[in-house]
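This part of the workshop introduces the protein records we will be handling. As an example, a complete record with its sequence and its structure tokens follows.
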Amino acid sequence: MTEPAGTLRRNVVPGAYRGVAVSSVECDLDEESLRRHFIGREAYRRTRFIVVRHGSQTAVVAVQKASVEPLFSAITGLQLLVGAADCVYLEDPHVDTAIPSALAQAATSRAPDKRGAVVQGRYGHVSFIIDPSPLRITVREVTPPYPPKLLDQVGRVLALAEHLPPIELVPDVVELEDLARSRRSESYLLPCRGGGVAVEGATTDYLDEHPDRREWTLIGCERSQQIHEWFYGERAPQVDICPRKRTGGTGAILAKCCLLETHIEVDDGRVVVPWGASLAQISEALTTLAHKWEPTWAPA
């Protein structure tokens, strides 16, 4: 970018923290004072933004240079993006400042009353976010296992997602044991033993062990019903656990479904991944949701 940033939008983060310089000054941090200080001075060709510090005060500016070809070039224009009254400088070595979601989480949790947050994070790298407003994605899951697998996987993907807008996860997690209690039975059949669920006061069998048939209630999804019908020649009374079928909720929703095996599906404002989704499929799902709900977002 060779021009100062234009009209500010939500979730403003730099495309790369190597384009962010840090400078301490003796002048005031209003735009006119900063123009007098910086215009005419040389800046590195990758520098697009400057975090300006004066004592405990911090401001962020965008700069225009005469050229981006030489190693250094004179600053010819400057725009104040966020002033000292609305900006805070945070230090947290656990924050990866290359990740928009990490910047937003630091800003909203530690400086919710400020428009801008500069973060000195992992490796000592410095970046910033202005007007954080993370996209809230509801993650629908059942548990055990613990932690809830899909929610955990999404968090792991976000921890490395440099290309996604700031995202905040909203867990919508239902316990299998609570689902079982919604339909009282003396015997329950669960899909597998792996989750470690056993319903107190009732016998519990596991479909993957192909137990002898008894009068039970299946706590499972449609795929479990299909397997039950294959094993025993009939369908069973059931409490359906499928997160995809869960009703209610608005906005961006991520769920999973056992009937999907090789691909994700888009259903209006939500995306559904396979029950055993890979991290690559989850990344694809998050990218799809971001394009749906934040179609104009891009790093500054």
